[in-house]
Amino acid sequence: MLKGFGGSSLRVNLRTGQVQRRPLDPAFARAWLGGRGYVCKVLYDEVPRDADPLGPLNRLVVSPGVMSGNFGPTGSKCCFGAVSPLTGAHGDSTVGGHFGPELKFAGYDLIVFEEIAQGPVYLFVDDDRVELRDASKYWGKGTIEAEEMLKHDLGEDFEIAAIGPAGESMVTFACIGHDFGRQAGRCGVGAVMGSKRLKAIAVRGTRSVPIHDLPGLKELTMGVIKRTSTHPNMAPWQKFGTAMFVGWSNEHGVYPTHNFQTTYFEPYAGIDGQPLVDKLLVSNKACSGCWMNCGKYARVTLPEKPTIHVEGPEYETGSLCGGNCGFDKIEEVAYVNWVCDQTGIDTMSGGGFVAFGMECYEKGFITREQLEGHELRWGSVDDFEHFVDMIVHRRGIGDWFARGIVYAAGQIGHDSIRFTAQVKGQGMSGYDGRGAPAMLLSYMTADIGAHHNRSWTITMDEDLGKAVIKGKAKVVVYLQHIRPFFDVVSCCRLFWGEVDVTVEEHIEAIRLMTGWSDFTLEEAMRLSDRLWNLNRAHFLERNGGPGRKHDYPPARFYEEAVPSGPGKGARLTMEDLDVMLDEYYAARGWSRDGNPSREILEDLGLPETATRLETLDLLGPLMAPLPEVRGERYKPKAF
Amino acid sequence: MKIVLKAGGMLADYLKPDPVTHAREVEAGEGQTLRQILESIGVPPGHVAMAFVDSNIVHLLYVPKEGEVVTLRPPVQGG
To answer: Backbone phi, then psi, for A237, in 5-degree steps?
Structure first.
């Protein structure tokens, strides 16, 4: 029996209703580990390169990785993936909560959804009993409302992942919601779920996951719990969660403000972690098996609005739906957070795209008539809510935005593409890279577009100098291997980054779970490298080359200087970007064009991918000798 | 006067606290701000996202009192 895993996979054909259960192949399990690894492999192998992301040939892939649900440090995650309607290539997004562990308890490590159902359905999973059920009564309901209804109908002990109206109408940045306020938010995985008319997945598992060395795992995990419980970072995390970084981000000149026009929002104190805790907090909220409780469950009352409950705002929402949209009261940020959660749009892309609309309105590029007689002003909750409603129901120019920010900019004209905050169509996370060049490089090169979870470098930018360009690319490569590793094995990276749980301890936990006594950090990092290159190949095969042309941000980020605040004057040039890209491609073993080389692909055991790229004229010559190690052992101080 | 600074994560590289208690007692001048104290012992203030006294956030311009325990937080890396 395969230890550490649920042991089975499901393949669900939504058109025919057929559900196939297959045992998990041990070789596949070891090679790709689960989570983001399985998602990457399935998408690369199965989705035709010309398949519409919102059509029947795309796949929706769901996978909790090896650590999810096991008694290891923070194994609570589950990865959702699909070819992204935002970026047109591999997309994945990981959610915490309890869904991943519950799938493992039911015996499943992987679900692959194919085709499109004839009408709204949800997947019912109760251990061995797996069936598609009619979801007509849930269709049209908000994400939170649908979760409530399904729990009411099936039982509190079912874990639910559901989409809202945005997913149903295939808004390209729709998310998948779970646990009343957590989301697989990025890449438009909710849109793909909606395109398949799959409203929800409901799962209950009552089994145990077999563990190779349970006493050893228990000893390791209890040691980690005991040690980290008194760590000085733990109490602030428990009290404030990620919201406490709004202030820091402002004071360090990286906080996106008014659609990334500047990096300092003067009234930030009103939307920082302190007012969240002082004014809105109902209780702390934790993912499965977690002792940090960083989630903040909040109650919000605004005049003329319903009283709502929401988990958050987390930092990313507090920035992109905060100062980036001009909101200066924590109640307002929390309320628009709820609007996004209930309709089922990603607060990050959602906040960023609405902020772009606000700047367009300010500049007169979109009119009151186009907004159905409404306005789109900075800091107006009513305007935000109305515009989101236009997007979700694809009314008028709302349809432009529903298709993505690049499409919307093309329709709006006025060269507005230059101030979109995105790379490869994915809205930027809540940090402005002009004050942190390596952070901008991280956005430029991330496999899913401008997302921070692949590489977050701001303290390194501070350490080496904010104006310093050279010498940072290797660190970005290192982080792009280490951080996505946590999405592969499906555990929370906060414990690594925040309270000093080492990667080696995670590796040891996996050994104890699986019995793979020869499993090493080197193997894990090599998998990360392989996934990165496979996703790059996937992107190029779908979007064409050379890769370099896709890796530049919009003009605002290399033409405009930051106009105010602590970051005032920070600016980058196209030459700076080229220096960073050259270093980055060399560190990766790619060509100067940003295409993978045969040497690197063969080194990673991907010779067929090399041949495929060669056929498509997407293989590049090495621009520098193949690095002996591609970042994985380059561990700079402070990481 | 003496105050106690506590830190883990990347800040421990600079503060060099006791590995078990994460704490280090440091000498501070009367009226010195937290920023000045950190600079004087080689902890870069830019790496301190925030500081806490009795679980409440204090600014780097905060002036610690004799015997106070100040917990330092690096910025989020996991998010």
So the answer is: -65, -40
Domain span at B12: 2-73
**CATH dotted code for A436-499+520-615:** 1.10.599.10
* Helix, strand counts (H, E) of chain B: 2, 5
**How far does B58 lie from chain A, in Å, by closest CA?**
11
- Note whether B2 and B67 are within 8 A (CB): yes
Which stretch of A431-435, B28-32, B53-57 has the lowest confidence by average pLDDT? B53-57
Cα–Cα distance, A138 to B63 (Å, whole number): 56
Chain A residues touching residue B22 (CB < 8 angstroms): 230-232
Residue A539 has pLDDT above 80, yes or no: yes
Q: Under 8 Å CB-to-CB from A538, ≥6 apart: which residues?
A: A40, A43, A44, A89, A90
Q: What is the pLDDT of residues B2-40, one digit of tens each?
A: 999 998 877 888 999 998 888 999 999 999 999 999 999
Can the peptide bond before residue A313 be classed as cis, meaning omega within 30 degrees of 0? yes
Is residue A379 within 8 A of residue A325, CB to CB? The reply is: yes
Please name the member of B7, B57, B78 whose beta carbon is closest to the beta carbon of A232: B7
Query: Nearest residue on chain A to B13, judged by CA atoms?
Result: A638
* β-sheet bridge partners, residue B53: B56
Min Cα distance B65 → chain A (Å) is 19
Look-up of token digits 């780097």: B60
Q: What is the pLDDT of residue A637?
A: 40
**Residue B17 within a domain:** yes
CATH number at residue B37: 3.10.20.30
Three-state secondary-structure class, residue B4? strand
Q: Any idea which fold A8-204 has?
A: Aldehyde Ferredoxin Oxidoreductase;  A, domain 1 (3.60.9)
DSSP code, position A416: G
Q: Does A355 have pLDDT greater than 80?
A: yes
B73 with A637: Cβ contact below 8 A: no
